[in-house]
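This protein record is not my work; I was only asked to verify it. The record follows directly below this note.
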Amino acid sequence: MRYQRSKPKENRNVGRAVEAEEILTVTMLAHYLRCHPSTVYRLLKNKKIPAFRIGSDWRFQKSVIENWLKKATIDLAAS
């Protein structure tokens, strides 16, 4: 029995305008911010950092964190 080759599938991602956001864990964010993970947890506890939960784990969008850092830097410079 001979099998015929199927046509190659088209790239399913072509035409999608939304790019995947980089999502960080607490450990990854601590490394990115060059601080200890307990510092990140303290910021979370005091609701000082933008984040969301997946189950019991915290996650962070890198673009949102970068905007948060810029805003914090501007606020400190204005004081």
About this structure: The domain at 23-78 is CATH 1.10.1660 (Multidrug-efflux Transporter Regulator; Chain: A; Domain 2). The helical segments are 26-33, 37-45, 62-78.
